[in-house]
Amino acid sequence: MDIEKLMFELEKKHPGESEYLQAVREVLESIEDVVNENPQFETEGIIDRIIEPDRILTFKVPWVDDSGKVHVNIGYRIQFNNAIGPYKGGLRFHPSVNLSILKFLGFEQIFKNSLTTLPMGGGKGGSDFDPKGKSNAEIMRFCQSFMLELWKLIGPETDIPAGDIGVGGREIGYLYGMYKKLTHKHTGVLTGKGLNWGGSLIRPEATGFGTVYFTEAMLQTQNDSIKGKIVAVSGFGNVAWGAVQKINELGGKVVTLSGPDGYVYDSDGISGEKIDYMLELRASNQDIVKPYSYEFPNAQFHQGKHPWEVKCDVAIPCATQNELNKEDAENLIKNGCICVAEGANMPSTPEAIEVFQENKILYGPGKAVNAGGVATSGLEMSQNTMKLNWPDSEVDERLRHIMSSIHESCVKYGREENGYIDYVKGANIAGFLKIAHSMLDLGVV
Ligand code: NDP
Ligand code: 2IT
C-alpha cells in the first residue's frame, strides 16, 4: 500500500478537509503491514472503499427564534460504512461543525464501533447550530426542524443517531418526539433516550465510565492503578462528568476541568458537590468554567489555557479534537505524566501522539478509550429490541466487559517485541480487520 499516493489522491478529491485527512492518515499508517500481508484487501479495493463514506446527506434547517427572526443552519448525516451493522453514531451541534469534522468523526466511528464487539456500522451527523444562549423553545424548534429532514434517512435497522457535543438528553427528547410524530412509531431509532421512554440506565455516564475502565486496564499492564493518582481532565461536558465521577470512585484525584474560556485548577480535588456544580455550569447555557473559581475559591482559573501544563500522573482529554498539541505533550512528559487516555475524539494532534509514543508512556486513542458510550448505546438498542430494561448493575457489568475486551484487542494487535503496547496500532488493526473481512464476504457493493 502506497500511503503517500493514497493521501495525495484523497486530498485532491477533498481539499482542505484537514480533520478527515488526519484521521484517515493515522489509520492507514497503523494498518499498513496488515494490508501488505493480505493483498486481497487491495485487489478488492477495501482501502479505497473504506475511506469514502457510503453517502453524505446535507439539508437546510430553517427555524424561528423567540423574537420571530428566521435562521437557517445546515444539517448533515454521514452514513460511512454499514458492513457490520446499521450506521450508528452521534449528532454534534456546534458552530464549528463542517463536512471535514463530521467525516473524521464518522470515519473514526466505524473502527470504534467494530471494536465494541457489537454489530454496529459507523455514521455521524449534526449541524453548525450553536445551542449556546438559546432558550428551551428555540432548541426544541431547531430539533424539530432538523428531524423533519432527518427522519427519512434513519431507522432502527438503518441508521441510529445519538448525542455528541451539544446534543444531550434534552435534544434527543425533542428529536425523538418529532420522529415519533412523523412516523407514528415508538422504536429504538435514537439512543441516549430518557429512562421513561426507552433509554438505558448508565448511558449518560457510559462514555466517562468506560474511559476510566480503559485507563485502569492500561495502568494494570504496569501493575498500577488509578488509586492515588493526580488526574488532569479537560472539558466539563457529558464525558468529563462521567469520567470525574468514576475517577473519584476508584480513588483518583481530579485537579482540572476546562472550557473554551480556559481551565480551572483545584488542588483540593473535584469531587462531591463540585461534580454536581459541573452539571449546573453546563445547564447555565453559557459554556464557561470560570464561575467554578468563584464558587470554590481555592480553585484558580487560567484564562485561555489548556490544563496540560499542570503536574499530573494521568491526563484525560474530554473536550474536543486537536486540543492537545506537541508542546502540551512535552509539558505532560516533563511533569511526570505516565498515562494519557482520550475521552474525546482525536483530542491529541499527530505530533503529540508521537511524543507520547517516543517516551513510551501509556497512550490510549479515543476510538478505543471512549467506545463505552456507543457500546452502551448498542446495549440500549438491544433492550429496545427485547422490550426490556436491564438494571444498572447489568448494563455496567456489560460495559466493563466490553471495555476489557477492547483493551485485550488493542494488546493483541498492538504489543511490540520490546513489550510496549502501541494502542493506536492495536485499536486500528483490530477495528479494521473485522470490517475488512466483512466487506470481502459481502462483495463489491
Ligand atoms: P458536551 O457538549 O457535553 O461537552 C463538550 C463541551 O466542551 C462543549 O460544550 C464545548 O464548549 C467544550 N469545549 C469545546 N472546545 C473546548 C476546548 N477547547 N476546551 C475545553 N472545552 C471545550 O460534549 P461531550 O462531553 O458529549 O463530548 C466531548 C468529547 O467527547 C467530544 O470530542 C465528543 O466527540 C466525544 N465523545 C462523546 C461521546 C458521548 O457519548 N457524548 C462518546 C464518545 C466521544 P463550546 O460549545 O462552548 O465550545
Ligand atoms: O463519538 C461517539 O462515539 C458518540 N458520540 C456516541 C455515539 C453513539 O451512537 O452513542
Structural class: alpha/beta
Order of helices and strands: HHHHEEEHEHEHHEHEEHHEEHEHEHHHH
Count of distinct strands? 12
The CATH architecture classification of the largest domain is 3-Layer(aba) Sandwich
Evaluate the radius of gyration: 21 Å
Q: What percent strand?
A: 15-25%
Reported by name, the CATH topology of the largest domain is Rossmann fold
**How many independent structural domains?**
2
| Main beta-sheet strand count, sense and barrel state | 7 strands, mixed
Strand ordering within the main sheet: 9-8-7-6-10-11-12
Distinct compounds present: NADPH dihydro-nicotinamide-adenine-dinucleotide phosphate, (2Z)-2-iminopentanedioic acid
CATH superfamily of the largest domain: Leucine Dehydrogenase, chain A, domain 1
From the N-terminal CA to the C-terminal CA, the straight-line distance is: 22 Å
Q: What is the CATH class designation of the largest domain?
A: Alpha Beta
Count of alpha/pi helices: 17
Question: Spans with pLDDT under 50 lasting ≥5 residues?
Answer: none
Shape: globular
Q: Helical residue percent?
A: 40-55%
Mean of all residue-level pLDDT scores: 97
Key features?
single chain; 445 residues; alpha/beta; Rossmann fold; seven-stranded mixed β-sheet; binds NADPH dihydro-nicotinamide-adenine-dinucleotide phosphate; binds (2Z)-2-iminopentanedioic acid
